[in-house]
Amino acid sequence: MITMRLQPEIYDSFINGTKRIEIRLLDDKRKEIKIGDKIKIIKRPDFNETFDAIVEDLLYFDDFNDLFDNIDNTLLFDKPYTRESILEELNKFYPEEEQKELGVVGIKLNICKDKC
Question: Which CATH number fits the domain 2-111, given the four candidates 2.30.130.30, 2.60.120.10, 2.30.30.100, 3.40.50.150?
């Protein structure tokens, strides 16, 4: 099973239903993800809370700017975050050159309420 680790505020946004799409660099690990795959989401930093989700859709883009231009931002992050603050944070981890080289992906997740 595929696993993803999320920061507490992002994890909680999925749990409360305000976030539906996880955004990542399209690296080798993400290229393996297919629609219908089951993913175990793990809450950082203690790694003691988890939930399972099914990949509902995969949305491919050139970079995070392109992704934000084409997806409703309310599916990506909660208020008080802004597009600018999220882009600034993402660019720290994933330089724009790396985004252009690999691309990015929006992973639309459907949380399993009981069993997947």
Answer: 2.30.130.30
